[in-house]
Design a protein that fits this description.
The protein is an alpha+beta fold. It is built from 4 helices and 8 strands; from the N terminus they run αββαββαβαβββ. A hairpin with a 2-residue loop joins β3 and β4.
Length: about 220
């Protein structure tokens, strides 16, 4: 009986020692961020050639002619890239019967030369509808900004880890896990006031503005005695 009690006490002491030195007790979760305001350097415009009437075939010819003329105008501006969007033929109903047809096709314009794009959109408004415009960071600028911010965010994470180490009087720390995430740099819509704009060849007013790019680093460090 005494031997069994002695063994039980020894086992309990061993469990307490194990818990005391359990690495999980020395883990600390941390997070750090780095962000930067960056001037938008790219604009995207979405325009539509649209025709309404009773004859779908005739409407399609009108839309095709307008789109061909628009693409010809775009080719004269090397700084602007064009991509044709969806082509749709939709009926409109009245009292359960087809009353007319709407034929439309989208044209997407993209450029890092904002003045050139604004001038071209102003000219195309005479035959196309402006559905909306967006300002954003180009993929190259966003990527280079994120890479610079990653270094800053990791340095901030390391600085916080060092503060924790000193506060906990640990001799050193090791990084157990690390996660890096990015956010921001979203497009800035400019559709308000542009949809159904007056038929004018004047350039659309564009102000590049800025986007906020943020990189966050979260992870776990292990303190060592």
């Amino acid at each position: 009986m005494a031997l069994a009690l002695l063994l039980a006490c020894a086992a309990a002491a061993a469990d307490d020692a194990k818990k005391e030195h359990d690495p999980q007790h020395d883990l600390v979760s941390l997070q750090a961020e780095a962000s930067r305001e960056v001037d938008n350097d790219q604009a995207l415009a979405v325009l539509t050639a649209e025709a309404r009437g009773d004859n779908p075939a005739a409407l399609a010819e009108q839309v095709n002619a307008r789109m061909a003329a628009a693409l010809k105008a775009v080719k004269a501006v090397p700084a602007v890239r064009a991509r044709s969007g969806g082509y749709r033929t939709n009926p409109t109903y009245s009292k359960g019967r087809v009353e007319s047809w709407v034929v439309s096709q989208e044209l997407r314009l993209e450029s890092s030369d904002l003045p050139a794009l604004a001038k071209l959109v102003g000219e195309l408004q005479q035959s196309l509808l402006v559905q909306g415009m967006q300002l954003r960071l180009s993929p190259a600028l966003r990527r280079s900004t994120e890479e610079a911010l990653m270094a800053e965010a990791i340095a901030a994470f390391q600085a916080r880890a060092e503060l924790v180490r000193k506060a906990m009087k640990a001799s050193r720390y090791g990084v157990r896990t690390m996660n890096i995430g990015t956010s921001g740099g979203l497009v800035v819509p400019l559709s308000q006031g542009l949809r159904g704009a007056s038929l004018s060849a004047a350039p659309v007013a564009l102000e590049a503005g800025t986007s906020t790019v943020q990189v966050s680093v979260s992870g776990t460090i292990q303190l060592e005695p």
